[in-house]
Amino acid sequence: MIIRRERAEDRPEIFAVLAAAFAGGPEPRLLRELFAAREYLPALSLVAESEQGVILGHVISTRAWVGTSQSLGLGPLAVQPGYQRQGVGSALMTATLAAANELGESSIALLGSTAYYPRFGFVPADSLGIISPDPSWGSHFMARALNAYTAGTHGQFKYAQPFKNH
Ligand SMILES: CC(C)(COP(=O)(O)OP(=O)(O)OC[C@H]1O[C@@H](n2cnc3c(N)ncnc32)[C@H](O)[C@@H]1OP(=O)(O)O)[C@@H](O)C(=O)NCCC(=O)NCCS
To answer: What CATH number is associated with residue 100?
Structure first.
């Protein structure tokens, strides 16, 4: 398996993975809108591809804000159901963090399972001074400091515009 940036011809397979992983959820539509949004960052839309050239998973992070400082919002993350629990999601997460560090990003946040994301260094966002867009998300709204993080960067987290539609 390799992790690489998505290419235009991957899109049908990526949407198929999301449809299977999220079975009826709004995520494929959200992803379509993120691809078209100005907050889309090509360097942070990654696929996991098998040796046979099959797309096994995809993850995207888009421009977001903490107050007036740039941040990233991660998601959706999806792995093809037949290939889950084999390290594909972990490889996509690790590659995302490396790419975000390379881009000089300061922080990255997500809404997700507290059983999964802490292993990648995510902590409750409020412990980094990042205020959740929705207080009802509680500890499921998590963030991770990246290499360029400076402790003074506090404020309200604002996702890319398409997240508001879902
Ligand atoms: C969540 C998801 C991306 C994880 O990817 P993956 O390739 O299956 O995960 P990995 O193989 O890298 O990691 C497996 C580990 O994560 C745990 N894990 C996997 N999915 C989990 C979940 N939804 N909640 C909690 N833990 C989870 C497994 O128990 C396993 O732990 P272990 O190694 O201690 O047994 C994938 O299962 C998926 O696409 N699920 C459906 C869509 C989804 O829920 N996306 C995330 C939204 S927050």
So the answer is: 3.40.630.30
